[in-house]
Specification:
There is one protein chain. The protein is an alpha/beta fold and about 400 residues long. It has 2 domains: about 1-340, TIM Barrel; about 340-410, Immunoglobulin-like, CATH 2.60.40.1180. It has helices at about 20-30, 75-90, 135-150, 165-180, 195-205, 210-225, 230-240, 260-270, 305-315, 320-335; strands spanning about 1-5, 35, 40-45, 60-65, 95-100, 105, 130, 155-160, 185-190, 205-210, 245-250, 275-280, 340-345, 360-370, 370-380, 385-390, 395-400, 405-410. Strands 1-2-5-8-9-10-11-12 form an 8-stranded parallel barrel, surrounded by 4 helices. The longest helix is centred in the last third of the chain and has 16 residues, at about 320-335. The protein is globular, with a radius of gyration of 22 Å.
Length: about 400
């Protein structure tokens, strides 16, 4: 499973019609299976407390509506969304949208009775109010909301900040949806590794962010102060949970990491865990014009690289040579990723291998019907030549890994 997260308001001219059949064809060249359309449900805008213009997709003001600005004809915005779902499905892809169970906008209002809030907000989310789950009718309301979107063909929900919501409610909610839509997928934004098992096996989520595990480890390595040995430790910690992890390098909450090739090799190719790609990541978009290197989720901004990407999708032109080269790397790796079989960590048996730096190199093996593959990632600026010992092999296999990159050898 490979998920492509995108903000429709920053794609093309910012309307749903712009995500056309040519875009679907492009997604498929990346091996994409699911598209997460971020910022579909109507959020608050134009209010004193709103952050940015048009505002945050996570300050929902009507759970039964689509943002008017996403349609060329505001009166047809729901039909435009339904048409997008249909286009996505006809391309053989599945649709994911956000579910934000912890909070709504202070001006939340809908035609079905509204949602009772606690009257305060968490952290610095001053454009929200926390939902009151001590008020039992809110449980039924949330189930009605998810069924509303599932009936429109939504295949999955990325569930925001689930650790701030009662687990017993989430378990009840997921079970309720699956009584009518058993194939609907639930993805949990979870940040505490020690809670992964509970949210997967007790609450019932299909996938969990591996933010506090693999992502944080790779980010530290990219920042120059990590330890690659932690990749092995995290893999061992997760054990049977690993196929339930959603690996990623970027999303709307995290900084852009352009050309983070060794991290890409590990996050995408370590095992069969699903992977998430953030729009523009595949051409090296770095959000270098922002202080925190994040693509804004609060403002309608023009991003030149995304505009070039949109042109490329429709004309075959527009991308810079460097962007084309980056895209070629992503295409090559992502198209092959799902078929590489079982993972075997090789760090433990190569601690004394000449040239192997356990703090900044990582080596592993994948075995499938396609064959046996030796993989390595190098988080240093120097090339690595490692004679790798593989149990069962008579001689060591020499693995060359380019500076700040990765390599794959078919044995």
């Amino acid at each position: 499973m490979i998920i492509y997260q995108m903000l429709p308001r920053l794609w093309g001219n910012g309307t749903l019609q712009q995500i056309d059949t040519q875009c679907m064809d492009y997604f498929k060249t990346l091996g994409i299976t699911h598209v997460w359309y971020t910022g579909i449900i109507r959020h608050s805008t134009g209010k004193p407390y709103v952050k940015g213009n048009p505002g945050s997709p996570y300050s929902i003001c009507d759970y039964y509506d689509v943002n008017p600005y996403l349609s060329q004809d505001e009166g047809n915005r729901m039909k435009d969304f339904e048409a997008l779902v249909d286009r996505t499905h006809k391309a053989g892809l599945k649709v994911i949208i956000d579910f934000v169970p912890n909070h709504v906008s202070p001006d939340y209002s809908d035609s079905r009775g509204g949602i009772k809030t606690c009257g305060y907000y968490d952290y610095d989310w001053s454009d929200t109010l926390k939902i009151d789950y001590g008020y039992r009718p809110n449980w039924d309301k949330m189930l009605d909301i998810l069924l509303f979107w599932a009936e429109k063909g939504v295949d999955g929900f990325r569930c925001d900040m689930v650790e701030m919501v009662p687990p017993e409610f989430l378990k009840w909610l997921i079970a309720g949806v699956r009584r009518r839509f058993p194939q609907v997928m639930f993805i949990a934004e979870v940040y505490t590794r020690e809670k992964y098992r509970r949210y997967a096996y007790d609450v019932g989520f299909d996938l969990l962010y591996d933010k506090s595990g693999l992502y944080d480890i790779l980010k530290e390595l990219l920042d120059g102060h990590g330890n690659a040995r932690k990749i092995s430790w995290n893999w061992q910690f997760l054990q049977d949970l690993q196929p339930r992890m959603l690996n990623f390098l970027e999303n709307h909450d995290e900084p852009r990491l352009p050309k983070a090739y060794p991290a890409l090799f590990v996050s995408l190719l370590l095992n069969r865990a699903p992977f998430m790609l953030y729009f523009g990541e595949e051409i090296g978009e770095g959000a270098l014009d922002t202080e925190d290197h994040r693509t804004s989720i609060f403002n309608k901004v023009e991003i030149p690289s995304l505009q070039r990407l949109y042109q490329y999708i429709h004309t075959g032109e527009g991308l810079k040579d460097e962007e084309r080269a980056t895209l070629a790397v992503f295409r090559g790796l992502m198209a092959a990723a799902p078929d590489w079989g079982t993972t075997y960590d090789l760090v433990y048996c190569n601690l004394d291998a000449p040239g192997f730096r356990v703090d900044s190199h990582y080596i592993w093996m994948r075995i499938s019907e396609r064959g046996t593959f030796l993989l390595g990632a190098n988080f240093t600026k120097e090339k690595a030549d490692i004679p790798v010992f593989i149990p069962g092999y008579v001689s060591r296999i020499n693995l060359y890994i380019p500076p700040f990159g990765g390599n794959i050898i078919k044995l």
